[in-house]
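Appendix B, record 7
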Amino acid sequence: DLTASCDVVLSKLGYSTVAECMLNGTPIIFLPRHDFVEYPVLEKAVLEWGGGYLLLEEEFNSLAWDEALNKIESTPRPRALPSTGAQVCADLIERRVCARLK
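Structure tokens (predicted):
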């Protein structure tokens, strides 16, 4: 609910944060994450989605956030992506249960 209510999220890229932003159409300003092996995949995903904005560590530390915030303000809110994971899981469980019952 919080992510859906925000104009923007400022965070590191992680699976839950990226999913929440994409599912709610909330842009994310993120910092590089050098110690996270999945970072390049998450970075590519949010940039291709159109709602991700990289803020360099130097910019973050010096509070030079204007460019990223201006990009968000001047860009239409990114599209919210559909959430189908629960249905996919339910279908897989149903198929397994039905296969065992036969």
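Remarks on this record: The chain has a mean pLDDT of 92. The helical segments are 2-5, 15-24, 39-49, 57-61, 66-74, 85-101.
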